[in-house]
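Hi everyone, sorry if this is the wrong subforum. Our group has a chain we'd like a structural model of before ordering constructs, and none of us has done structure prediction before. Sequence below.
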Amino acid sequence: MSDAALGTGGSAAVISLPIRLREELGSEVQVHAAIRTAAHAGADAADEVRSPSTLIAKMAPQTAIAVGDLAPIAVDCSQLHFFDPETGTSLRR
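Answer:
Right subforum, don't worry. Here is the predicted structure as tokens:
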């Protein structure tokens, strides 16, 4: 995943997600975004960013994405991995 505003670098899909937390980690920035409305129903912000309905993405340090933004996130679908929730087996062919 990357900040679509910095360029997608190919045929990535772009989704817009509300940003709830930004963590500056030196060589990267991690952004936490809600992926369902239920992700942020609680009163405690700390609980909100630990929700199973929160997506965490590593971004380049040049990203301008900030807390409160509805940010365009580029997703390289060829890099997605899915697993069977019951067995843990990879669903990739």
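For your construct planning: The first strand starts at residue 2 and ends at 3. The mean pLDDT is 80.
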